[in-house]
Amino acid sequence: MTSATRRRFLGIAAASAALLGASPLRAAIPHIKELPEPVTWRGIALGADAEMQLLHPDPAHAQRLIQMAVGEIHRLEKIFSLYRDDSALVRLNRTGRLDAPPADLCRLLSEACAFADLTGGTFDPTVQVLWNWYAQRGQAPHPATIGPDQLRPVLNHVDYRAIHIESEFIRLERPGMAITLNGIAQGYITDRVTELLRANGLEHAMIDLGEARGLGRPDASRPWRAGLADPQDRSRWLDTIDLDDQALATSGGYGTPLDASGALTHLFDPHTGSATPRWRSASVRAADATTADALSTAFALMPEPAIRAIISRFPVQAWLLPPDSGTVTRLG
């Protein structure tokens, strides 16, 4: 959950020439003459490849909106990034306390703790200490050599309930704790950018900042559409998913292996300290990208009955890819 090079196998069909041909956006949407040419931006957000496609009749205004969106991305990265020494999150981790915290940090940490409650602690933003522990060992240890006795001292610093959040300050109650928001921040930034664009008059867009969210419905007969690519063969699509004013996120440990075999990953179980997820990937569609991001992170570690229990009382759908299968199972 903590690597700047974390890669998703989420493929946006409306932006994928491999799926839809040489003019993918117009191939995805009928009634070509009624649509403006898309204005596209590509870059990096929180270490992941990012892309925005805006449909607006005034290309100059679309470009202005892109600049506003990029500015918002950079503003939020200064708060959530683990790779900037001056970010609010790094300063909190450095001293265990942050006075006058940014409102976005208070809000997202509160949401992260709410998802921790929902998932029985499987989603836990305090697993950064596990990343540090594994990273210090490089690729030396074999997974079989890592036992509970080694991880127990580290797990003493993992507990989201020890985060104290006030508008005036945030405090980590135990010395040695550290927070990562990389399992939810990309979704949060996606939502903030989408809301910014909508508030400034944009009705139709696809925002993919590591997690994808469709805005509007460019054509009455076809919503935005995303594709799930096989992580072992990215030319093969496992499923396609409509995003009708919805968001989609995927979590998989294959993108950031921590050992030579790939058995250890950046997805950590807060209960055991294990770095081996239960599913090769977990994808979640939800009304917003923050929810999709957090739940896909948790679902990658959870057994199917526990996932079904959450889906039965939460309006989301999940696609699970087992480690020994090339076929996804849809829940919800």
Give a quick summary of the entry:
This protein is an alpha+beta fold. The protein has helices at 17-20, 24-28, 59-80, 88-95, 103-118, 128-136, 148-155, 185-199, 289-299, 304-311, and strands spanning 10-12, 39-45, 48-55, 97-99, 163-165, 169-172, 204-208, 212-215, 224-230, 233-243, 247-251, 281-286, 317-321, 329-331.
Overview of the structural elements:
The chain is of the alpha+beta class. It has a domain at 88-172: T-fold (Orthogonal Bundle). 32% of the residues lie in helices and 22% in strands. It is built from 10 helices and 14 strands. The chain has helices at 17-20, 24-28, 59-80, 88-95, 103-118, 128-136, 148-155, 185-199, 289-299, 304-311; strands at residues 10-12, 39-45, 48-55, 97-99, 163-165, 169-172, 204-208, 212-215, 224-230, 233-243, 247-251, 281-286, 317-321, 329-331. The strands form 3 sheets. An 8-stranded antiparallel beta sheet has the order 2-3-7-8-11-12-13-14. It has a 3-stranded antiparallel beta sheet with strand order 1-9-10, with no helix packed on it. Strand 13 and strand 14 (329-331) form a beta hairpin. Helix 3 runs antiparallel to helix 8 (185-199) and helix 8 (185-199) runs antiparallel to helix 9. It is globular. Mean pLDDT is 85; it is low at 1-33.
Describe the secondary-structure layout.
Elements (H helix, E strand, L loop, with lengths): L9 E3 L4 H4 L3 H5 L10 E7 L2 E8 L3 H22 L7 H8 L1 E3 L3 H16 L9 H9 L11 H8 L7 E3 L3 E4 L12 H15 L4 E5 L3 E4 L8 E7 L2 E11 L3 E5 L29 E6 L2 H11 L4 H8 L5 E5 L7 E3 L1
Antiparallel strand pairs: 1-9, 2-3, 3-7, 4-6, 5-6, 7-8, 8-11, 9-10, 11-12, 12-13, 13-14
Helix pairs in contact: 3-8, 8-9
